[in-house]
């Protein structure tokens, strides 16, 4: 059942927490934001998220609150299975139960990239399409699959995690999981940094690599080209596997990688899927909040 009322969506990340009041048309009507008190532990993070949400609840009726959070979670219980050190102690946190107790209303929880994909499917670059693959290229690499308008979670809540695909050209680069040769190790902000350091001995951020490439640094341009080509080729292969209507690329490093990724994607895409576009995501920093609110609006989106 779909409820046509405004809902509050929460985006809980390692750096910031954002609450948004989202209307039935997907417009963000109000926002609240604060730094995530990650080093103070899970209870402090949950208290901060609840405080932000509570400021918007009076305008959102009595319906559920939606949450998009960093970490791998059990979609049935809203409990974090695994999280990185960006949220210390977050693994094992019962996010849905804890926020339900704090807010006195139902809470529905998704991984943040899954929530972003749901938002893009609803009112973003994927609007009008029911089957999508979204890849989020930031410090790391995340992915999500939308199947018939719903998040495809898989058996363990991790469907769409493209980061650990074995990738040619990444053999000397270490993935966030600790192994070498994965897609995240080359096509992410950390991958750009590692590849540039390996080539030059100079340690800079992934953003700095993109900036140096734009300024004409040939090594940085080569690093970006390789990363984008690896991403585009991998996405073309995933299209044949997942058969989406479109592939969306989101995240802070997306713009730098898209030119080379688009060329490699077009070159590698099998003929049977020639009409499947590779598109930049459209919602930017609002994507998780919008998708989380959609999760709260529509029980069929779980």
Automatic annotation (TrEMBL):
Entry-linked Pfam families: ROK
UniProt-recorded name of the protein: ROK family protein
Similarity section: Belongs to the ROK (NagC/XylR) family.
Cited SUPFAM superfamilies: Actin-like ATPase domain
InterPro entries according to UniProt: ATPase_NBD (IPR043129), ROK (IPR000600)
Membrane spanning residue stretches: none
Domain of life: Bacteria
């Amino acid at each position: 059942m779909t409820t046509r009322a405004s809902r509050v969506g929460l985006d809980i990340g390692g750096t910031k927490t954002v609450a948004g009041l989202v209307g039935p048309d997907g417009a963000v009507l109000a926002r609240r934001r604060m730094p995530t008190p990650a080093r103070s532990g899970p209870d402090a993070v949950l208290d901060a998220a609840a405080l932000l949400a509570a400021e918007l609840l009076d305008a959102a009726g009595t319906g559920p609150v939606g949450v998009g959070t960093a970490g791998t979670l059990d979609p049935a219980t809203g409990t974090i299975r695994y999280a990185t050190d960006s949220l210390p102690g977050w693994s094992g946190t019962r996010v849905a139960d804890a926020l339900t107790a704090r807010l006195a209303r139902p809470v529905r929880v998704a991984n943040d990239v899954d929530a972003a994909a749901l938002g893009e499917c609803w009112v973003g670059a994927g609007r009008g399409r029911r089957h999508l693959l979204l890849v989020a290229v930031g410090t790391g690499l995340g992915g999500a699959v939308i199947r018939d308008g719903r998040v495809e979670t898989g058996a363990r809540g991790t469907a769409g995690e493209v980061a650990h695909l074995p990738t040619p050209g990444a053999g000397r680069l270490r993935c966030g999981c600790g192994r070498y040769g994965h897609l995240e190790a080359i096509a992410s902000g950390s991958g750009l940094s590692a590849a540039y350091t390996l080539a030059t001995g100079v340690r800079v951020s992934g953003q700095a690599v993109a900036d140096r490439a734009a300024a004409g640094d040939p090594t940085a341009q080569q690093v970006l080209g390789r990363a984008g080509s690896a991403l585009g080729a991998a996405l073309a292969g995933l299209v044949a596997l997942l058969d989406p209507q479109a592939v969306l690329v989101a995240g802070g490093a997306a713009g730098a990688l898209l030119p080379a990724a688009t060329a490699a994607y077009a070159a590698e895409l099998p003929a049977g899927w020639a009409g499947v576009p590779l598109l930049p995501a459209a919602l930017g920093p609002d994507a998780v909040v919008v998708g989380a609110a959609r999760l709260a609006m529509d029980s069929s989106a779980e």
